[in-house]
Amino acid sequence: MSRALARAAGAAALVLAACAPLGPDYARPALELPADYPEPAAGTAALPADWWRAFGDPTLDALVGAARERNADLRVAAAQLEEAEAALREVDAGRYPQVDLSFTNSESRVSALTALPNPQPRIRLERRLAASTAFELDFWGRLRRGVEAARAQALASRYGRDTVALTLAGTVAQAYFALRALDAQIAFTRATLAAREEALALARVRVAGGVAPELEERQAEVARADAAVQRDDLVRQRKVIAHQLAQLTGRAGSEVAAGTFDALPVPPQPPAGLPSALLERRPDVRAAEQALVAANARIGVAKAALFPTISLTGSLGGQSASFADLLLQGARIWSIGFGLALPLFDAGRAEARVEQAEARQRQAVALYQRAAESAFREVADALSNLELARQSEDALKTRRTAARRALELAQARHAAGYSGYLEVLDAQRSANDAELAAIRNRQALLGYSVDLMKALGGGWAPAGSASR
Predict the structure, then answer these.
(1) According to the model, what pLDDT value does residue 113 have?
(2) Quick one: average pLDDT of 122-145?
(3) Sheet with 309-320, side-by-side order of all strands
């Protein structure tokens, strides 16, 4: 019996190897994307996958590390990957026979009123021990296409987890730079508030001495109040960002000490003429493609349902009235069977499932196209934003220097009696706006560099060097 089963299994394997699975084989869709990005890029240095370390800030490194370890969204994505991998193992196991071991112990009594041709015991004992198996012959590739779909789905989950990790690192970096920008704005506003409190005290002395009108004192009070309101609003914004960072890093209630980002470098730009093929490294684009692979394979699964299901069954064991005799030669029992199930009429259900699978595959093609096109646009946007922020930085520095000097001159003219206090107020507002604009542009510059890291999938390498 065992040799017969082995020969049957071997013959089935040879037949199945010669049968191509139903459904279309996957081919990557052609996308009409430019070969290069239209925006300028003049960098040459490589950037590793842990791109956030290029900013050289230990606090940022610690925050990203904590987020990658403790963030709830990332843990969910990791668990989803484990689920998908387990599902793949389950589907793959369906290609192999399942062997079950069963044991039964029964006792039955025959009716004394039943006429029997030969006298037999009325009480019957039966012990049965057998190993049984059932194996579907995958002539049409239903199981193989199912494994192909499950494998692609597991890869899509892996890339989904990588997408969450990349997005998380970018979000932490953006929030951290926003926090540091607010620290710089709060520090400047506090200094401004202190200066305006001194100006208010001086105005009160001048008004009390009859040197200046009461209007000057009231204008100084308004300027001092404006600075106080501005400081309080910035402090409020900082608390909100700090709470966001605490949630992202999975450390509720934690605080980040105040600091500055003046010394933080902007990471290098990618090499000039960066090819759009680099988008293949983006995990979200790769996840979309694997979802397309899975949808393509499920067409074959649906088409296989239109054809007969062929299976082999078999069992081998022993049966006797006594436990001691179960393994004897005379107690040996076996069976081998062949089954075929052919769908005759289902009112078009199977054909409808094929059409559904084909429609889902077309949806997956469109989603893959959208993911690739969105990725290309995000890189182009990040490159242009980064370049324009760089250009604005020099102009804003010039504006800040000129506004500071204008404030000094206005204060000197007012002290000498050549101008009214309104000129000083105008110069203060201009200096305040110029200082805050420079800080915010610095934050934007760092933020756009993070956008570029995310858009490129994290890090890059110049042409001719090894990719990460």
Answers:
(1) 66
(2) 83
(3) 98-109, 123-137, 309-320, 332-341
